[in-house]
Each structure stands twice: as structure tokens, then as C-alpha cells.
Amino acid sequence: MRYLCLVYQDESAIAEMPDDEYDALVRDVLAYREDLRAGGHYIASSPLQSVRTATTIRARHGKTFLSDGPFAETKEQLGGFYLIEAADLNEAIRLASKMPPARVGSIEVRPLADFGCDR
Question: Is 10 within the bounds of a domain?
Fold first, then answer.
């Protein structure tokens, strides 16, 4: 089963990290991605650009509304994702708990739904 692991982090805390600490985190992220790949769990992953680059779109009653930034003001912002393959939720949680960004933020694990599944 496929799981989307959403990485949430405080962008200001990441920006304030000393260079050596940030570089070590990036090295750990790249190494962990290779571990996922070697274990047959890796599908895709990517960091996101700053929340300042986001645009939120709403379509209501035939009209489209755009606003700069994310929908909600929060301390942590969506910073990236991993798309993984796992046997079940327990395995997905085990894999996500080892993701280096969990040390500086949080990881939300959600199973992908089959299109047209029950609501």
C-alpha cells in the first residue's frame, strides 16, 4: 500500500539553523532516501519551496479565488513529502519515524485512497 508522509516544519527554525547543522540534516535526508530505495519502499520525495511562494486556490459558484500563501496560519508549514510503499500502517509509521525531518518538525502519515473509494 502507498502512504504519503507529509513533512511539517517551522521554516524560521530551519532558516536559523547553523550551516553545519543544516548540512548534516540534508546529508541525513539524502542517506535516508537511499535506505528507503534499497529497502524497496521509496517511490518519490521532494522538499517544497518556501510557504511564501504558495498560492491557495478556491473555486466557488463558477468563480476562482486566489490568495497568496497557505490556507491556514500555523507554526509549522508543509515543507516536503515522501511517497512510500509499506505493507501496512504500522510499517509506514516505523519508516516515517526514522525520517530525519521528524527531528526538527513532524511527519503526517496518510494512506493513499483508491480513486472512487467510499467516502
Answer: yes
- Rounded to 5 degrees, φ, ψ at 82 are -125, 135
Range of the domain at 71: 2-111
Residues 32 and 111 sit within 8 Å (Cβ to Cβ): no
In a domain, 26, yes or no: yes
Tell me if residue 65 falls in helix, strand or coil.
strand
Residue 82's CB is within 10 A of a number of other CB atoms, namely: 26
Strand order in the sheet with 105-111: 42-47, 77-85, 2-9, 105-111
Q: Does 35 fall in a domain?
A: yes
Mean pLDDT on 90-112: 95
Q: 3-state class of 31 per DSSP?
A: helix
CATH number at residue 42: 3.30.70.1060
Q: What is the largest CA-CA distance in the chain?
A: 50
pTM of the full predicted structure? 0.86
